[in-house]
Design goal:
Length: 285
Amino acid sequence: MLRKDRHHRRQHLWPHRCGCVTIKVDASHQMIITLTTDFGLSDPFVGIMKGVILGITPSVQLVDITHDIRSYDILEAAFLIETTYGYFPEGTVHIVVVDPGVGSARRPIAAVSHGHRFVGPDNGVLSAILENEAYHIENNSFFLKHVSRTFHGRDVFAPVAGHVARGIPVQSLGPRIFDFIRHPLPKPCREGARIVGTVLRVDKFGNVITNLRRTDLGSEFTIRVAGLPITRLCASFSQADPGQLFAVEGSTGYIEIALNQGSAADQLRVARGAEIEVETVSANH
């Protein structure tokens, strides 16, 4: 069962039906809340959100996944939360705020998936992890007293996550919904004799993370990015010579285009969303 905090003040609980998933949390372990945003760190937004959370649950452990998502890039946020949340213990609460529609009619939602709890806007940012248990956050007794139209990270998502970490079940936040927005990560597609993939993300080192998997390459392949051919698949970055472009299966399981000790993205002049072509002799499809 969710742990209970004896200092928790009484709140109005949203009535809900049975049949929902119960998250089992080991009460001997400190509760964790992660934060993933496009806020950056030059402004006080992230610090303010943490202050709100700590005011509700002072003993929680706060973990920053990243605040350097490209501004408004919902797809990048969806990719990052999909590839990171599983490294945290079950019961962790994840706040994901990339919210270009803040203050509009878009819904704030909470979800339960794979033993974790998620809080964020209903704009597709949770697409990669949503299963079938999501709730429209309407119970404003868990919001800050004054809710602005421009900073729901502070006024809605941070306090809701704090209360959920203290033991409030997500079912109490509002009615269950089934029409939540999904923007699935793009999948490679076959066009004649070639496979067309997409750049999902460029990391800090300039590695170009694609939506290709090892099985998409076959035994022999040519990847064309910005017109340049890449035919070498390395097991690690150090296998390539400095300055050499190559492909590697990255830590997320996706194929990356890398430049040993350099930025492949800068050399190729590509960014998220760029098209990648693969010509392959044999691949599994």
